[in-house]
């Protein structure tokens, strides 16, 4: 989500009981979405100025080698998957004993969730102190030509300041919107990751995947290795093992439906070549296999693809890494493959088999310890499964565009069978924002079930009203459609329709996931 789009409405913890947070939330009104490049360029200048005033100038990109970054910094962009990859990398580093800061957006419940160290959000008093340190600087900037920072600019700066003050040894930074002109793109990174390219935020990023790829590839910097999950259009997938009774499905979180004249992969490859850096691409340099387990999650194997033979005619053996991933979905296995390769590069692994030229950012990093952390990793709002008192299984997912909805549907088809109709009572609870293509998402969701409950979120004015949402339901897609203005009542309707042995799936928006997660009585995370 982007700067203007990533702001959750003020919840009780951001009331006047916390004046510092009130100041930060007040910057939301200053933030105006704009598609004009010159506006974003001005914002980048302001972001650099803000970091200098906070004594963080050494973090700024100076067109230098990756070794110039004060600490290993992983910068992650992508239409979908970037939050999951960021959390996996951070969890792996922390498990290996590296004190790691993680900056992501938006938050599900509390603002402090955006600023994590070793998995723990910053404390409210820490956030208040960070904001108070910045208020005099923000007011100085407001009186000058540079202008006052926006909400997203300041939260980004506060994250970097927090990680510095708390002695982090590495930091993982998720892009807000796009990449090239995002506020995070002023930092010097050690590794760049592009997870996927899809159609989202077209009014700002462009209306084709190639155009969007150019924006996201803007995080590529000279001398900084790049890992890309964007496959070549003609790439053949490796075999995907399936559990008994399941069939392979080609969809993958790091694979895009690409039209013949709209291929994002060559765009990323071209920009990496022009910038002058090494690029590792999923499906060309490395790949993965996954096998869903009978319990939740998958067994994943990440492996290098054979490199051309050297002068002696010998191909070096490809590296292989195996682990159990505790979250569901082949798309998450693809995300884990990107995270695993990122950790290998940070540990000083070769950029390609036989290439020993990579600089070691974390030479003592134990990769096995890193990936073992993913056995029990919890990714909030990512096909998150709960048990309800006297009720069905509840699955909450923040999917809010066609690609992420497709990944959700594909995962549930794998888990519950190609057709959920008649297999197990499944009901969709759906609400979304006005700027999303509700009809397209609902068409994909109709692959799962013909039972639907429409709703809206309460705490943000961007919701799509129920009458417009009902008008977006594709004809003959759902047999049973109910609706409720209350998201909690919508879940209650879905629970009754699904029955105690059924499944309720909540999706369509971060804001909806937030409300359901906060409001429903959840017994346990299964």
TrEMBL record:
GO CC annotation: cytoplasm
Biological role stated in the UniProt entry: Functions in two distinct reactions of the de novo folate biosynthetic pathway. Catalyzes the addition of a glutamate residue to dihydropteroate (7,8-dihydropteroate or H2Pte) to form dihydrofolate (7,8-dihydrofolate monoglutamate or H2Pte-Glu). Also catalyzes successive additions of L-glutamate to tetrahydrofolate or 10-formyltetrahydrofolate or 5,10-methylenetetrahydrofolate, leading to folylpolyglutamate derivatives.
The name this protein goes by in its record: Dihydrofolate synthase/folylpolyglutamate synthase
Keyword Magnesium included in the entry's annotation: yes
Keyword hit for Cytoplasm: no
Superkingdom of origin: Bacteria
MF annotations from Gene Ontology: ATP binding; dihydrofolate synthase activity; metal ion binding; tetrahydrofolylpolyglutamate synthase activity
């Amino acid at each position: 989500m982007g700067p203007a789009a990533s702001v959750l409405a003020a919840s009780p913890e951001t009331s006047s009981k916390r004046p510092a947070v009130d100041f930060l939330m007040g910057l939301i009104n200053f933030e105006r979405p704009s598609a004009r490049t010159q506006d974003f360029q001005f914002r980048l200048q302001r972001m650099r100025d803000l970091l200098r005033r906070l004594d963080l100038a050494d973090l700024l990109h100076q067109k230098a080698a990756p070794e110039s970054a004060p600490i290993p910094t992983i910068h992650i962009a992508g239409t979908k998957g970037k939050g999951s990859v960021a959390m996996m990398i951070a969890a792996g580093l922390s498990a290996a004993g590296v004190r790691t800061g993680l900056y992501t957006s938006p938050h599900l419940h509390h603002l402090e969730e955006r600023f994590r160290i070793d998995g723990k959000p910053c404390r409210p008093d820490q956030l208040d102190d960070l904001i108070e340190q910045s208020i005099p600087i923000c007011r100085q900037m407001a009186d000058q030509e540079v202008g006052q920072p926006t909400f997203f600019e300041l939260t980004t700066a506060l994250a970097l300041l927090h990680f510095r003050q708390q002695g982090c040894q590495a930091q993982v930074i998720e892009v807000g919107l796009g990449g090239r002109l995002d506020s995070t793109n002023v930092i010097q990174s050690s590794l760049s990751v592009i997870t996927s390219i899809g159609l989202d935020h077209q009014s700002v990023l462009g209306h084709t995947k190639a155009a969007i790829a150019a924006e996201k590839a803007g995080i590529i910097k000279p001398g900084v290795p790049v890992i890309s999950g964007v496959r070549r259009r003609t790439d053949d997938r490796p075999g995907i093992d399936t559990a008994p009774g399941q069939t392979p499905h080609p969809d993958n979180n790091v694979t895009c439906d690409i039209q013949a004249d709209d291929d994002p992969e060559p765009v990323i490859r071209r920009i990496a070549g022009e910038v002058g850096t090494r690029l590792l691409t999923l499906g060309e340099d490395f790949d993965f296999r996954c096998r869903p387990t009978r319990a939740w999650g998958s067994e994943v194997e990440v492996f290098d693809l054979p490199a051309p033979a050297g002068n002696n005619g010998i191909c070096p053996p490809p590296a292989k890494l195996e682990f159990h991933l505790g979250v569901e979905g082949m798309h998450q296995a693809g995300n884990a493959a990107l995270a695993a390769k990122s950790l290998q590069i940070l540990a000083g692994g070769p950029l390609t088999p036989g290439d020993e030229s990579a600089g070691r950012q974390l030479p003592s990093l134990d990769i096995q310890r890193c990936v073992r952390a993913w056995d029990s990793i919890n990714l909030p709002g990512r096909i998150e499964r709960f048990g309800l008192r006297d009720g069905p299984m509840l699955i909450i997912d923040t999917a809010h565009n066609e690609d992420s909805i497709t990944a959700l549907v594909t995962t549930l088809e794998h888990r519950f069978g190609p057709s959920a109709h008649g297999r197990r009572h499944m009901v969709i609870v759906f609400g979304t924002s006005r700027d999303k293509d509700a009809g397209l998402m609902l068409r994909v969701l109709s692959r799962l079930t013909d039972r639907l409950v429409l709703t809206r979120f309460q705490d943000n004015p961007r919701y799509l009203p129920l009458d417009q949402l009902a008008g977006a339901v594709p004809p003959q897609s759902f047999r049973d459609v109910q609706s409720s203005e209350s998201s909690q009542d919508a879940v209650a309707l879905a629970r009754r329709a699904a029955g105690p042995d059924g499944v309720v799936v909540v999706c369509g928006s971060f804001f909806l996931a937030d409300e359901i997660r906060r409001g429903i009585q959840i017994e346990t995370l299964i």
